[in-house]
Amino acid sequence: MCHIQSSVCFSEVWDKSESGEWLCTASWKTHSGSVWRVTWAHPEFGQVLASCSFDRTAAVWEEIVGESNDKQRGLSHWIKRTTLVDSRTSVTDVKFAPKHMGLMLTTCSADGVVRIYEAPDVMNLSQWSLQHEISCKLSCSCISWNPSSSRAHPSMFAVGSDDSNVASGGKVQIYEYNENTRKYGKVETLMTVTDAVHDIAFAPNLGRSFHVLAIATKDVRIFKLAPMRKESSSTGPSKFEVQIVAQFDNHNSQVWRVSWNITSTLLASSGDDGCVRLWKANYMDNWKCTGILRGDGSPLSASSGQPISTTVGSSLLSQNALNGISAGRIGRRAPFAPPLRPLTSSKIDQTPAYY
Prior knowledge:
Blueprint lengths: L9 E7 L5 E8 L5 E6 L7 E6 L4 E7 L12 E8 L6 E6 L7 E6 L3 E6 L10 E7 L4 E6 L10 E6 L10 E7 L4 E7 L9 E4 L8 E6 L3 E8 L12 E9 L6 E6 L5 E6 L3 E7 L5 E8 L4 E2 L10 E2 L2 E2 L26 E4 L9
Antiparallel strand pairs: 1-2, 1-26, 3-4, 4-5, 5-6, 7-8, 8-9, 9-10, 11-12, 12-13, 13-14, 15-16, 16-17, 17-18, 19-20, 20-21, 21-22, 22-23, 24-25
């Protein structure tokens, strides 16, 4: 299951057949402008998608089973449940919050505003209420929720900016929920990231006391954010010790997408070099490239460019393990959906899509 950004207004859902072949089971017009991103809700909430577009809107879609006419027989039938129209500029990213927070949807837009919506009734996806509206002061290009469900970690998300003005300062901001004010406040700015940011991704947190954030800019960067101890009586925002643990310029070009595997042991990145590169840390926490894939999925070695095995450690690296990172500029990302979900993409007009 995967999503691909598009230069046209359509989205597609793909299913994998028993023979291993991917088949398009649904294709429909989702917006009146270019579709920038598509994302899945957790399967706990049903077959639900959200999309965002240059047309200044975000939309929520739900699959209806067994309601299709003869012309569409055999295809999935997707219904638009709502359109979110609060943004006055292009909506550049859309993400569902981690499932432990309930059915919540976050958007960011080119005017620098992050909006967080909630569906009060998960059985009625036509009703969404705007819970938070946060001004980031910079044009927003991407967002990522920290997936940690630990009570020790307040709800947190990161926002990236594609503002090309280096003088405007750090392009990644971290926001955290404050129980006392019941609002999200900025707790950190990564001042060393001054170039345009195209994608950010928190790593899944499997019991760690710190957070790991990957950033796609002119290179690949991995940051460690370790919360500093607060006094028991303190009610102020968290403070973090920020450390960059890895930085790679192997793409020799702009990096467009980064994505973690489910155990946060493997990071995949894609860039304008048309390749997907895989990064893994050893027991000393030293990161290195463990494999390179061409846009068509064929492997290369990290040094000689010769075909290599895609085995990483003791586990075989499959397309699923990549979480669907894609290469190229128009079809820049194809993240796979949660288990038991079909493949999603946006239709690309005469441009090769890479899965």
